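User: Here's a chain of 718 residues. Predict its fold as C-alpha cells.
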Amino acid sequence: MPLPPPSSPLPLSHHLLSLPNGARTLLYRNELGQQGILNHIEDPERRAEQWWRERWNSDTPLCVFHGLGLGYHLPHILERAERGTRFLLVESDPWTFSLCLATTDARPVLDHPNVEVLVTESPREASERTHAWLRRLGGPELQLRFMVDPPSLFPKPTFLRDWFEALAAVAPELASFLLRSLLDYYPKPANLGVNWPIIQNRPGIRRLFGRLRGAPIVAVGAGPGLEELLPILRVAQDRVLTVACDTAVAALARAGIRVDIAVAMDSGERNRDHFLRARGVEFLPVFYGGVFPPLLRDYQETAWIASASPFPTAELLELEMHPTRYFSSKGALVLNQTVGSTALDLALKLGGSPVFLAGIDLAYCGGRHHASGTIYDGSDQFSRSQPGVFEVPSVEGGAVATCTAFLISLLGITHQVRLASVPVYNLSRQGAIIEGAMGRSEGLLVLEELTGSASEAPAHRLQSEADLALRELCQPPRERRAGRRASDSVGPDGVGRWRGELAPSTRLSMAQANLEVLAGRWPEPAKALAGRLSILQEGVLERGERCEWSRDEEGYPRMLIMDRNGHTLAETPAVANPWREVREWTSAPSGDRQGLPTVLGVGLGFHLRGFLERPGLNVLWVWEPYLDRLLIGLGASDFKTVFNDPRLHLSVSPSAGEFFVQVSSKMPELLAHNPLRHRPWVLPGFRAWVSREKSEYLETWVHLFQEIHRATPASPQG
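Assistant: Prediction complete.
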C-alpha cells in the first residue's frame, strides 16, 4: 500500500516525542480518549530490548511479528534472521511504518532473504498472506512463534481481533494456535485474581454512567496548585460534586472539603497509604479491580469497581479464561499515566456539565510536584523515579518544567478535553496549559454563579442514584423481570453471558437445544433427562435439593444448590475467582499424567471448555453421577460445542465401579501405563461438596481410586 511521505504532518492520533537523550518514541490516541506509548517513554531502546529478550527465550524457525514501531526491534529481528529464522513482519499502520523508514536504516532487514514485509490496513489481507506464507514454507505449527507489540495496535484497535477472525475462517487450527501463543505471554495482573471475590460482589461504576447528567463536577488532583484552590473549593463544595484522585483525598479532608468520590487505579502497595491518611473520611470509592488487595479489602463493603483495559489486545481476552473478561463490563475508565485523567474521564461519563479541573497541574511548580500533606510531600521518591525533564507552556506564560509521567498525562488529558462534548475549565493558577480547556478566570465566574437548593445538590443526587442502582442490582430476579417481554430473555452470547434473565421458559429452551446435541452421542442419558425437564421450572432436585439460577452483573450464569433445610451445598462458579478456577485447573493434564484425564461434575461447562482448549489433550472423560445436576447446568449454559467435541466422553454412571468399567472397556489403553499416577479433577465450582464431612463426591473419588488400585495391584504407587 502507498505510504505517507515522511514530511507529511502526523494525524492527531499520533504524537512523535523526542526525548532529552536523543531517542524518540510515539504516543498513540484513540477515540475512547486512551493513550498508548510505543516501547517506553524514558528509554525506549533499552525497554524494547528487554521486551524482546523476555519473549524470545528460544530459537524457532518461523515467526509472525506485528508492530515494528520506530525500528527498535529491527536489530533483534536481523540477528535471528541471520541465524535462519524466517519472518513475516506485519504492520497495520502506514504512518508508523513511514516513520520507521524515516528514522531508522531498515534496509538490512527489509532486504534480507528470510524476511517478508506486509503493510496492510486490511485484516482479511493479513489473514490470507499469513496463511499463504505458512503454506509456502510448509512449517509445522508447533515451530511457529507469534509476537505482537500491544501498543502498536492503538491506531487500529480492532485489527488484531479482525485478523484472527478472518484467519479462523480459512485456517481455524492455525488461528487457535496463534491465539494461544499470543495469550501465553500477554501480561496477567495478579491482583485481579486475589481481588476476584470482592470484584464479583461489588457493583460496577458503569451503573452510574450518565445518571448525574448536567451536574457540575470538579476533578481534583494533588498538584501544588491545589493548595491555593482549597478555600475556593470549600465555599463551592455544596454546589459541585467532588471527584478526587487518591493522592488528593487526605488534603481535601484536612481542609474541611467533602470528598464525594475517590478514585484509585494504581496496583502498587503505596497506593494504600493515600487512604490510610484519610481514615474516617466517607466517600464513594471507585477502584480499579487490580488495586493493591489490602486496599480493596479496606473498602470491600462500599467500593464500586472500574476496569481499565488500555491495550487493544484486551478484546482477545474474551476468548481466554482470564479475570478481565469477567469484569470488563463493570465500566472502563481511561488511565493516561496519572489518576487525574481517570478523575476527568469519570466526571465526563457521569454526565458532568460543566467540568472543572483543580490541582491537575502536571508540572513542577516552584520546584514542587505535589501539594503538601500528600505521601510525596518532602520526598524525592517521585522525582527520582521520573528522571526525564521537559519544558511545556505554562498557564502563567512562558514555560514550566515537567517530567515524563506528567507529560504523557498532559498529552492524554488534552486529547480527552478535545473529545469532551461539555465545557471543561482549568482552575489552576500554575502548571501546564491544557489545550482546549477554558481558563481560570472564566471557570471561577461559572463556579460562583452555580445555584441550587439543598435537595438538588450534586452530592444528594449522587447518593440517590447510587442507592437506586444498588437496589436495582439487589432486586430478586422475578422483580427485575416484571414488565419485560418474553423476547427480552435472549442469550447466551459467544462467551456465555446472558442478556436477559434465566426465566423458566428460557432454561427449558436452552436445555432442549443442548439435549438435541446430547442425544446424537449419548441417547440414553438424553432420553432420561428429557423426562425430567420440570426440574428446570420448579428448581426441585432429587432428595429435596433446590436450585436457584441467576446472572452476575456481567451476565454470566450462576447456580446455587441448597439442601432441604436451605443450607448451601454448592455454588457455581465458586466464590473463588474464575480465573484460578478455570485457568489453573485446566493447565493439566500433561506429560506422564495424561493417562486418565477425568473431570467430576459438569456444572456450567466453562471448565470443560477450558480443558478442551488446552493443547495436547486427546481425550477428556466427564463423569456426572447425578442426572439432576447435569440437567440444571444444561438449562443455564450452551453445551453444544462441548458435546460435539469428539475428544469428550460423558458418563452418567451412578457409581465409581460402573464408571471404571465403562472407561476400561472403551479405552483399555488409558490404564496401561502407571494408572495410579492418573490425576482426576473435581469441578472447582462444586468444591463446597468436597469440603463437607462424608462428602459424596469425595467418597466417589475414593471409590474410583480403589477400583484403579484393584485393577493394577502391582503398581509402584500402591
